[in-house]
Design brief:
235 residues; alpha+beta; Glutaredoxin; six-stranded mixed sheet; globular
Length: 235
């Protein structure tokens, strides 16, 4: 697996690896493990090959943005698409007053619960859009888990885009020993209805079901907590 990933990076001079292509080539499901699992081995092998990491400089966009696209790494983004990502990143921390309506949605979480627009009435909710190919998403998930434990009166709903089923999602996150229910979406349609093509993206929703704040890219626990605390004070 490591060798195949490195072969792709060297030949394409890009870290924008297609997990499906790697899986097809090796017969091993790359997404059975978080992206962070493969990274140390890949970097070590590239170092052994004396590969110039600076030749993949565009991959640093993911670091600069603190995010990936819902489609994958940002390294290959150019022109109008890159401009759209840049404009979206500018909405990071945006306060939406008096609030935007939630898109219509219906989800089943990994604990079997049904969640839709009406189920969140009267309760602050954080919609957290993530992706299994995104290292920043893997860093975000344990933070959301802890915030859920610290804020029992707030609903946290991590939604993974482009994951076929909750069973697949449970398998991919099993190593984290989570207690927080997650939800899988087989496409990115709901994320786009919220206005998110970058992950992680967090939307804070007030007790009246209005989207009041948006975070784009990785955020620390303190940053998210501060946003929640400020939202709770809004009447």
């Amino acid at each position: 697996m490591i060798q195949t990933i490195c072969d792709h990076v060297v030949s394409s001079k890009s870290f924008a690896v297609d997990p499906e292509a790697i899986t097809k080539s090796t017969g091993v499901n790359m997404m059975d493990r978080p992206i962070e699992y493969w990274r140390p081995g890949v970097l070590e092998e590239l170092k052994r090959r004396e590969f110039d990491l600076n030749s993949c400089a565009t991959a640093n966009r993911c670091t600069d943005y603190g995010a990936c696209s819902v489609y994958g790494n940002l390294a290959s983004a150019t022109g109008d698409q890159l401009q759209k990502y840049t404009e979206e990143k500018k909405r990071d921390g945006l306060v939406i007053d008096p609030g935007a309506d939630l898109p219509e949605f219906s989800l089943t979480t990994t604990d079997g619960s049904k969640v839709d627009n009406h189920a969140i009435d009267g309760k602050l909710t954080a919609f957290v859009f993530l992706a299994t190919h995104c290292g920043h998403s893997w860093k975000t998930l344990p933070i959301i888990e802890q915030l859920g434990k610290d804020n029992k009166d707030i609903r946290f709903l991590p939604i993974y885009v482009n994951v076929e089923s909750n069973d697949e999602l449970v398998k991919a996150t099993a190593h984290l020993n989570l207690t927080l229910p997650l939800a899988a979406r087989a496409d990115d349609a709901l994320a786009k209805e919220f206005g998110a093509t970058l992950v992680p993206s967090i939307f804070l929703v007030d007790a009246n079901g209005k989207i009041r704040r948006q975070f784009v890219g990785f955020k620390t626990q303190e940053e998210i907590q501060n946003g929640l605390t400020q939202l709770a004070q809004v009447k």
